[in-house]
Amino acid sequence: MERLMAIILAAGEGKRMKSKKTKILHEICGKPMVEWVYQCVKNSGVDEIVLVIGRNGEEVKEYMGNKVSYAKQEQQLGTGHAVIQAQEYLENREGQVVIMYGDMPLVTSNTISLAVDYHKEKGNAATIITADFENPAGYGRIIRNSQNEVVEIVEDRDASCEQKKIKEINSGIYCFDISALRDALKELDNKNDQGEYYLTDTIKILINKGLKVGAVKIEDREELAGINDRIQLAEAAKVLRKRILNKIMASGVTIIDPDSTYIDSEVEIGMDTIIYPSTIIKGETKIGEECIIGPGSTIENSKIGNRVEIKNSVVLESCIDDETKTGPFAYLRPGSNVGKNVKIGDFVEIKNSSIGDGTKISHLTYVGDAEVGKKVNLGCGVVVVNYDGQKKHKTIIGDNSFVGCNVNLVSPVEVKKNSYIAAGSTITDEVPENSLAIARSRQVIKENWVLKKGLLKKD
């Protein structure tokens, strides 16, 4: 049975990144670049993927897990040598194998599918993805004969003056017949100035055998960019970010200023939502319809309902239900679940708490490890004192309760439903249902105290 395989070459050390992290694990728009390459080939219909890793490949294995098979290239002896390390996966298989690099996150699955389809249609032993570059310096050149057939790939350093003028370059992405590649690898040698095994030499071997080699030239040269340093990483991020935002806008979302908006690839946003400038939406966030998000908001791995407003606020690993207004300058920390038609106002911080429908927490309040019921009002400056220095404790506030300004709720404590707490109280004991709790000292006035102390200030 024929198979479509892929070998991703990812053993390079990436020294120009100047990082302790393996190059292909550097993130772009929420995913490591190797994940972009993996999804590209996976979405093109590939059955099996082999990842060639280097000496420091354990962190790559830890991230990729069992999604791929692995081959290890202990020594960096060229691209052909890297493919040879994966040769065991080519044995006793028929079909096609796509070979590409793990640091090319801009390649699309459409381009891979186009090359594979062309390869099969023409009956090629190998097909190369190429493009015309205005400045092809550093790239291998595609040499064609008078019939426009590919006859050779010449590396830039080996090219003659005439060959250097050729603009069609080798992208380093190939589709091979598995059996043809398997045989060509057996004849590969390192008799060159670098002492390395070049994958491009397999093209020459196949042509010398009289086998057919073709090329698919693509128009979008951006797809073929490799990432070698932080500058190129940022440039690739711009391209991917534009693709993501264009897709979101095409689905019915308004993005006021795409240049200042950062949205990860896995984010889902409903129709008629408006995203204002300087907003960052990360991870697997899902946002409903007719929402207003931003300006200046950050949302990460959260679920947002319909007709929600989030202004100048941070929402992390939390859920906000329909028609709730958040911000400006609110902070929802992980584990927060906010109900419908809730108001979370300015400088309110919520952590690991549930907030019932219709509740209002208008400003300058901290709610941590708490269960707040429906239609509760928390006044300005309310603090849930959830930490005793060793453990976190829970506070429960029942439905329809009113908590006045500058109240401390010392956990663990429960305020039953329909209760009132007077402003300035420190609550340490349960407040019964339908009660008013007052926990503050009686006001004392000492007349003329300022004069007796000699503290009166002259005008």
From TrEMBL:
NCBIfam families: glmU (TIGR01173), PRK14354.1 (NF010934). This is Bifunctional protein GlmU. It comes from Acetivibrio saccincola. In the C-terminal section; belongs to the transferase hexapeptide repeat family. In the N-terminal section; belongs to the N-acetylglucosamine-1-phosphate uridyltransferase family. HAMAP family: GlmU (MF_01631). GO terms for molecular function: glucosamine-1-phosphate N-acetyltransferase activity; magnesium ion binding; UDP-N-acetylglucosamine diphosphorylase activity. Pathway: Nucleotide-sugar biosynthesis; UDP-N-acetyl-alpha-D-glucosamine biosynthesis; UDP-N-acetyl-alpha-D-glucosamine from N-acetyl-alpha-D-glucosamine 1-phosphate: step 1/1; Nucleotide-sugar biosynthesis; UDP-N-acetyl-alpha-D-glucosamine biosynthesis; N-acetyl-alpha-D-glucosamine 1-phosphate from alpha-D-glucosamine 6-phosphate (route II): step 2/2; Bacterial outer membrane biogenesis; LPS lipid A biosynthesis. UDP-N-acetyl-alpha-D-glucosamine binds at residues 9-12, 23, 73, 78-79, 101-103, 140, 155, 170, 228, 333, 351, 366, 377. Its EC number is 2.7.7.23, 2.3.1.157. Its cofactor is Mg(2+). One of its GO terms (biological process) is peptidoglycan biosynthetic process.
